[in-house]
Each structure stands twice: as C-alpha cells, then as structure tokens.
UniProtKB/TrEMBL annotation:
<feature type="transmembrane region" description="Helical">
    <location>
        <begin position="38"/>
        <end position="56"/>
    </location>
</feature>
<keyword id="KW-1003">Cell membrane</keyword>
<feature type="transmembrane region" description="Helical">
    <location>
        <begin position="6"/>
        <end position="26"/>
    </location>
</feature>
<comment type="similarity">
    <text>Belongs to the auxin efflux carrier (TC 2.A.69) family.</text>
</comment>
<feature type="transmembrane region" description="Helical">
    <location>
        <begin position="284"/>
        <end position="307"/>
    </location>
</feature>
<dbReference type="InterPro" id="IPR038770">
    <property type="entry name" value="Na+/solute_symporter_sf"/>
</dbReference>
<keyword id="KW-0813">Transport</keyword>
<keyword id="KW-0812">Transmembrane</keyword>
<feature type="transmembrane region" description="Helical">
    <location>
        <begin position="236"/>
        <end position="264"/>
    </location>
</feature>
<feature type="transmembrane region" description="Helical">
    <location>
        <begin position="169"/>
        <end position="186"/>
    </location>
</feature>
<feature type="transmembrane region" description="Helical">
    <location>
        <begin position="192"/>
        <end position="215"/>
    </location>
</feature>
<protein>
    <submittedName>
        <fullName>AEC family transporter</fullName>
    </submittedName>
</protein>
<dbReference type="GO" id="GO:0005886">
    <property type="term" value="C:plasma membrane"/>
</dbReference>
<dbReference type="InterPro" id="IPR004776">
    <property type="entry name" value="Mem_transp_PIN-like"/>
</dbReference>
<feature type="transmembrane region" description="Helical">
    <location>
        <begin position="68"/>
        <end position="91"/>
    </location>
</feature>
<feature type="transmembrane region" description="Helical">
    <location>
        <begin position="103"/>
        <end position="122"/>
    </location>
</feature>
<dbReference type="Pfam" id="PF03547">
    <property type="entry name" value="Mem_trans"/>
</dbReference>
Amino acid sequence: MDSLLVALNAVIPFLCYISFGYIVKVKGVVKENFLQQLNQMVFRLFYPCMTFYNIYKADADSLPRPLLLIFVGGSIILLEILLVLIVPRIIPENPKRGVIIQGVFRSNFVLFGLPLTVSVFGDSAASVAAMVVTVVVTIYNTTSVVILEMFNTSGKLNIKNVALNVIKNPLLQGAITGLVLFLLQIHLPECIVTPIAAFADMTSPLALFILGGTLHFNEIGHNLKYLVPTLSFKLAVLPAIMLVIGHALGLRGLELFLLIAVYGTPVAAASYPMAQNMGGDGELAGQLVVISTVVSVVTLFFWIFFLRSIGII
C-alpha cells in the first residue's frame, strides 16, 4: 500500500495538469494559438529559471557522483549510435528515420523527469537532477540537430546550424549560468532569488497544462505500425535495460531512479517543431509526443510502484 501511494502521489499531479489543459482547450476557454505563444514564453523564460535555480541552490554535499553523469551521457550517445546504425535498415522512408531515432532517445526529462524525481525523493533531489539536466540537455540539443540533419530530405549536415542551436538553447543557458554561480560561490540578493524561485516553481505545472491543451489524437491510425514498436521499446524495454546496467555498475536509490527519469519519460515535446522545420515527418513526430505523453502516465506509475515494491527506491 505504501508503494502504491508513492506511485499515485508522483503521477496523479501530472495527469491533473495535463487533463486540466485539455479540458480548458476543449471548452473553448483558451484558443490553441494562445497556448502555442504561451509555450514559447515558458520555453524561453521559465525553463531557464528552473534549470538555473535548481543548480544555483544546490548543496555541495549532495551533488551527483561522476559515475552517474558519465553513465547517463555515455549511454545516450551509445544508444544514438546504435539507432543510427539499426533504424535505417528497418525504416525505408528517410524523413521517418530521424523522427523515430529522436523519439527513442530524446525524453521529456526536464518537464517530466525533474519534477517526478522531486515528487518521489523530495526537494533535496532537485540539485542532483538539475546537474543531470545539464548533461542531458547538452547532448539532446546537439545530437538531435545532427541526426535530423542526417536524415532530412537533402541528406546534408549543416554544422553551423548545429552550433547555433546549442548556443541559443535557453535551458542550457540557464543551467550553465547557475553552474558558474554555484562553482564560484556567488550569491545573488534575496530580492532577485525569490522571484526566480517562484518562476521555477511555476514552470512544470504551466508547461504540463499547455501540453494538455495542445494534444491532438486525430489521424493516428495509419502510423500505428511505427508508434507501437517505437513507444513499446522506449517506455518499457529501454528503461529496463538501463536499470539492469545501472544496478550492475553500482547505482542505487536516487541515482537509479534518475535512469527512469531520463529513459522512461515521454518523447520530448521539442522534437515535434524540430522535425517539422528540419525535413522530418512532422505528423509522426507529433503523434509520438502525444501518445507517449498519455501512455507514460501509466508506465511511470508502474515503474515507480515496481521499484518501490522491490526496495530499490
């Protein structure tokens, strides 16, 4: 019963935020174009506050072990290499290849994983998760551009675009700024930190509300042959593989749970507009985001319940 309550308390708030956004949109209280504009604001202004604040307020005694950061970063890159080698042998259409590869390795870690970790382990886990965010976001935003460029309609890789997308990423800018102030032990005035903390607290509920308001379930049927195997592997098989490897390497507790937060959360919402603008199959990318978001509410519940039941978390 204790394991069930922990799992429910972690997942139900996500379902409430998403459902509220969807109902508000269906009832016509807000228009979707407004939600899209709000989404841009959250991405450019609120997310940097969240990544900055979680690292800035970190306790030096509760930082992640280098082993965790190395394993997370190395495993994502290795996974991407394997997918680039395997997926083209299975999927004949070039625009779908990059979208499916991105759909498997790129999770919504910032929106789902970070608050989920705090929900299960408390506020003290936010600093560790935020450090992992720095590694994950850097790799995601670099390699996603490279992979989509590789499999775009022209098949050409634009190095300049890759570099610019990494430099201009707001999440990474916030994380690096927070890391610099943390390492130099520079303390901002409380009158500045307080509003930044408030914006950071608003980020996840608001982003999930917007996600719910922009969900679409039409025209999914003809892509089921891609959606079912891709998301089954992403949400069930891949997290299990990473848990086994992580456990064998000595990761425990919060460190092991962060592997679920990185690999078991839904496809990153940013993968949809990126695919649309870089020659990928935008329709398939959007469907991967929508279906994985809905299904992950169930799969994350079972992952938390399972790990709690066997005493890993």
